[in-house]
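Handout, section B. The chain below has 268 residues.
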Amino acid sequence: MNLEPTGERLLVDAYQASAERYLIYLFHIAAYRFASQHIRDKRVLDYGCGSGYGTNMLAPMARSILGVDVAEEAVEHARKTYSAENLSFRKVNPDEELPFEDASFDVVLSFQVFEHVTDTRRYLEQTRRVLAPGGKLILVTPDRRTRLLPLQRPWNRFHVREYAPAEIKTLLGDCFETVTMAGMGGNPEVLAIELKRCQKTKWLTLPFTLPIWPDRMRVALLDLIYRIRGNADRATSVPISFDETSIRIEADAWPSVNIVAVAQRGAR
């Protein structure tokens, strides 16, 4: 059984090992490509930048772009790997407010982060605070409809909760004046790789992801599975027959592997 790779903070080289992992990489690339239409000449905060590859990808288009992450090792990797005059990286403390003045940014990116957040209201309020009037939050998070059974808890042991689009729209609507929703879909043959992976994993982990388990127990049991399978799941580099053009972000995308939302702060 293949759980999601432990590299929640994506290292590009690690995603060349299999078609499944490469597809996850392409989902990340698709999110940053989508964001590129919103960030030209803007002050951008990549809130949860991970290893920094996507932050660096957008730097040529932005006025300035700052990548922040809670993991010191991720920030250090980004600093050593990527450089540009308008690009910087910084560690932030997850238990404290964002260390930036009000209205410091025009766009905030939150890609594959929201599912890790316990206090989502505080997270969104902090995001709104650092956005200038008229600024945008672009949020991408897994779509639970294609990953989980009803009431099932996440089988990714790093995720606190996964959401359906209606839930995301409600949460964003409580903090932002305008919310536009889309899904991440694409070529059916390519998406079938991810859907098959999710289908297999949600059933194989079902005994440990039922809502009757305390969250600590769920994580411990999933950790055990990963330790058992982790060393046995080392794939070698394989030829890939698809690329980022197989992934599309559309309003009515189905099946949708990720929710894509653009929330805009009012002009005042």
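Note. The mean pLDDT is 90. Compare this with the example in section A.
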